[in-house]
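Before the break, one more example. Copy the sequence into your notebook; we will annotate it together after we see the structure.
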Amino acid sequence: MSVRVRRVYDPPEPEDGVRVLVDRLWPRGLAKDAARVDEWPKAITPSTELRRWYHAGEGSYEEFAGRYEAELAAGEAVELLDHVRDLVRTGDVTLLTASKTPEHSHAAVLARLVRS
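Here is what the structure looks like once it is written out:
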């Protein structure tokens, strides 16, 4: 079982497994049928406030990751994070994001957490 992080704009691949969109907003200009998204658990995406703070350049990636992990440890996010972990235990999972730098996005933080 593996967890991959890919851009949602990249074409689907057979080894993607379950495709999970981890962005709060639907990606611009992408038709829903073309994205082939299997799940879209919005409660495990960064809050609007955290997303805006990070994109404004007010903090480091490490600080963003810590704040995001704190959000994932509360409320509905806990249950959905466990659900994604269950998906990983049973097969391949690809976390999809519109971020131009997925390796420095919330998707990378999420991937690390579901692997553990």
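The chain has a mean pLDDT of 93. The first strand starts at residue 3 and ends at 7. Try to locate both features in your own notes.
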